[in-house]
Write a structure and sequence with these properties.
It is a single chain. With about 375 residues, this protein is an alpha/beta fold. The chain folds into 2 domains: about 1-115 and about 310-379, Rossmann fold; about 125-305, RecF/RecN/SMC, N-terminal domain (Glutathione S-transferase Yfyf (Class Pi), Chain A, domain 2, Up-down Bundle), CATH 1.20.1050. It contains 10 helices and 15 strands. It has helices at about 35-50, 125, 130-145, 145-170, 175-220, 240-255, 255-265, 285, 290-310, 330-340, and strands at about 1-10, 15-20, 25-30, 70-75, 80-85, 95, 100, 115, 225-230, 275-280, 280-285, 315-320, 345-350, 365-370, 370-375. The chain has a 6-stranded antiparallel β-sheet, covered by helices on one side. Strands 8-12-13-3-14-15 form a 6-stranded mixed β-sheet, sandwiched between helices. Strand 6 and strand 7 form a beta hairpin. Helix 5 packs across helix 6. The longest helix has about 50 residues, at about 175-220. The two termini are about 20 Å apart.
């Protein structure tokens, strides 16, 4: 599949933009701050309906506008599909497929599948656990779109449960506490159901990318370091399936009840879990060099690309956002080879044309002051 046309209205720095992409490699070149990343961010948004750069959609809307619109034409298996998103900060976004409204975001998941590698991805190795959890969840949703609903249900349950715990901490009368505790049991059940599903899904995704990550790391780094990936649930051991996680969560919630009342927060569940990454048995977060960390982050993205390719028909879009300049010569050459061999559409951004190795050929766009124009096509 490929994004054939992208139209932006009041998205980031673009008041109006239309760009037609080629099926193969597309390179967007322009000085920093001119909007290269904003273009590929819009493409990635169509895959996840969230941004890799910001937690909320407010920053996606151009200053002075009250909404942003992304329109696209997707080509897949000989047919064209229109996918449009109206981004409404503080309100529900509106989606259309072939101009017909889509009630639930999850129903549009999978129309665009994309893997994006960006400078922020160094946080996959060196950053907080939340970064690694988000990486797993995004891949989980792209491989199994139903998890968009499961994750949304879990987040809602977690917010409600934390609200009840805060109320319980402030309640003075016995009757108030008993009522809150009774209500809390209802949310316990939902937390167990949705949480166990998420945890089992994450385990499955991690198992699927473990071997591709090790292969990609060996290729990118030209080293035989032993790469380890492990899902580490908080206060739970030995569980692998949804039923096992459900039983363990239910038991653990009872064990930590007093602590949760004291802290007024949910202390166990997938929102607190970790993904442990190791190189030669040592934690990558504390021991990996800068180059090793870059190689591992890149390997995780390339492994995601491979998993998405195998999981459904059609090639995902590969997005490389301003990363060639971050890599040394060896890693840059290996990434260039991967991009050149990719059978699907590839979008690359760079501040200067020289950042992109000569062997990466395709259509080149100039990005300047909110305009994007094709300037050459290299075969």
């Amino acid at each position: 599949m490929r994004v054939a046309r992208l139209e932006l209205t009041d998205f980031r720095n673009y008041e109006q933009l239309q760009v037609d992409f080629d099926p193969g490699i597309n390179v967007l070149v322009g000085p920093n701050g001119q909007g290269k990343t904003n273009v590929v961010e819009a493409v990635a948004y169509l895959a996840m309906f969230s941004s890799h750069r910001v937690a909320t959609d407010t920053a996606l809307v151009r200053a002075g506008a009250d909404r942003a619109v992304i329109r696209s034409m997707i080509e897949h298996e000989g047919r064209s599909v229109g996918l449009d998103v109206q981004i409404n900060p503080g309100r529900a976004n509106r989606l259309q497929v072939n101009r017909a409204p889509v009630k639930r975001v999850r129903d549009a998941m999978g129309l665009v599948r994309a893997v994006m590698f960006a400078p922020e991805d160094l946080g996959l190795v060196k950053g907080d656990p939340s970064t690694r959890r988000r990486f797993l969840d995004q891949l989980l949703v792209q491989t199994s779109p139903r998890y968009a609903g499961v994750l949304a249900d879990y987040d809602k349950t977690l917010r409600q449960r934390n609200s009840l715990l805060r109320s319980a901490a402030k309640s003075l009368s016995r009757d108030e506490r008993e009522t809150l505790r009774s209500t809390l049991e209802v949310w316990d059940s939902r937390l167990v159901t949705f949480g166990a599903d998420v945890m089992a899904g994450r385990v499955n995704v991690l198992e699927n990318i473990a071997e591709p990550t090790a292969r990609a790391y060996a290729s990118v780094a030209a080293a035989r370091n032993d790469v380890g990936l492990a899902y580490v649930p908080t206060r739970i051991q030995g569980a692998r399936t949804a039923d096992e996680f459900a039983a363990a969560l239910e038991e653990t919630l009872q064990e930590v009840r007093a602590e949760e009342y004291a802290r007024a927060v949910t202390v166990v569940g997938p929102h607190r879990d970790e993904v442990e990454m190791t190189l030669n048995g040592l934690p990558a977060r504390g021991y990996a060099s800068h180059g090793e960390s870059w190689s591992l982050a890149l390997a995780l993205r390339l492994a995601s690309y491979e998993v998405l390719r195998e999981g459904s028909s059609g090639e995902p879009v590969l997005i490389l956002d301003d990363v060639f300049a971050e890599l040394d010569h060896q890693r840059r050459a290996r990434l260039a080879q991967f991009a050149g061999d990719a059978p699907g559409q590839v979008l690359i951004t760079a501040a200067v044309s020289g950042d992109v190795p000569d062997e990466v050929r395709g259509v080149r766009f100039s990005v300047d002051s909110g305009s994007v124009a094709a300037v050459s096509r290299e075969k």
